[in-house]
Amino acid sequence: MNNAPTLPEPRADDRFLLRPWRLSADDLALVREAADDDYIARLTTVPAPYSDEAGRDFITRQQRRMATGEAWPLVIVRAADQRPIGVTSVRGHERDQGRASVGYWVVGSARGQGAATAALRTATDWALTELRIPRMELYAEPWNTGSLRTAEAAGYLREGLLRSWQVIGGRRRDMYMYSRVSTNT
Ligand SMILES: CC(C)(COP(=O)(O)OP(=O)(O)OC[C@H]1O[C@@H](n2cnc3c(N)ncnc32)[C@H](O)[C@@H]1OP(=O)(O)O)[C@@H](O)C(=O)NCCC(=O)NCCS
Questions:
Q1: Which single residue of 134, 160, 170, 178 could bond 156 by disulfide (Cβ 3.0 to 4.6 Å)?
Q2: Where is the N-acetyltransferase domain (predicted)?
Q3: At what angle do helices 52-68 and 25-35 cross, to 10 degrees?
């Protein structure tokens, strides 16, 4: 795996930027708010309950994942006030098969502003072109209307229901699979 691709053009659209994690008070505040969200805490490895030490460990792990090319976790920053409000992360573990998956979350106080859509579209365009991954996948639970609409707004097509696909919160869940594929394959 190429460990040092050029990072995405950071401007997700005029209102949002994408950048790597930083060990900063702002990014720790983002981890803290995410840890208070039951669903984000179940879906991800954000430390819940939150502590500054666990928050720093979390950020260091994200930086390490990016350095090794295991994943490209990018913080979504609102341009107007430079506040970190969420994450989109491309995971490359099936890159040798021409596939990668992407996840995303936005903290509750910043939802409904188009951040997830802009970030997902930018990260996906980047993975398809810069990383030359032919097929991008994402998974979302059928009840998660916000996530399904985000996927569709970012150009993903629903392919089908994967039954009992993934453990979330200690229970196996059905997930819809969505994909975006490179137009030149
Ligand atoms: C899902 C999530 C990322 C959406 O983030 P967001 O920044 O609010 O999304 P956007 O503002 O870009 O909205 C995208 C679309 O979803 C719709 N939407 C967002 N939240 C919604 C909700 N709760 N119910 C219905 N529709 C919703 C928006 O109206 C928009 O639709 P449109 O393009 O048709 O207008 C956010 O709610 C979240 O982080 N949830 C918890 C973690 C999660 O579920 N992550 C995804 C795992 S697969």
A1: 178
A2: 16-182
A3: 100
**Residue pLDDT, tens place only, 7-65:** 655 555 689 999 999 999 999 999 999 999 999 999 999 999 999 999 999 999 999 99
Is residue 44 lining ligand 1, measured as CB closer than 6 Å? no
Give residue 149 CA to ligand 1 midpoint distance, Å. Answer: 6
pTM of the model as a whole: 0.94
- For the segment(s) 11-134, the CATH number from 3.40.50.300, 3.40.630.30, 3.30.1360.20, 3.30.365.10 is 3.40.630.30
Give the residue whose CA is nearest to atom 3 of ligand 1.
Answer: 105
CA of 109 to the centre of ligand 1 (A): 12
Q: Is 89 in the pocket of ligand 1 (CB under 6 A)?
A: no
Among 101, 104, 111, 177, name the best residue to mutate to test ligand 1's pocket (greatest count of ligand atoms within 8 A of Cβ): 111
- Each domain of the chain, given as residue ranges in start order, spans 11-134
